[in-house]
């Protein structure tokens, strides 16, 4: 006859590694989602600030208000952004691109890379009002 105690030990030896691996995978997914959100936040912040400088409107906020305190957020938030401009009809579009690589500790062998893109329309209020006034009947 089989021992119930031995059977429970064998079942636990098979189930515990699966549970631990699942928990680790969920934690790594949460970190990856957080890094993506920090990168997108940084990209949007930098695009808005650059548009504000180019359009000569608004005031600059202190950088310390937007700096995360943890290592994942700081690494993603401090990335350099490549800016560019293009014309779409009468509007100027400012676009930016940011990429970030990080090492996922035991689950993935190599580094992981994330890339985000964003766009902001530059609006010159004086020129906009002048053109709208010309359209009025």
TrEMBL record:
Q: What is this protein's name? A: TadE-like protein
* Record has Membrane as a keyword: yes
Q: Which organism is it from?
A: Aminipila butyrica
Q: Does Transmembrane show up as a keyword for this record?
A: yes
Q: Which UniProt keywords apply?
A: Membrane, Transmembrane, Transmembrane helix
Residue ranges crossing the lipid bilayer per the database entry: 15-38
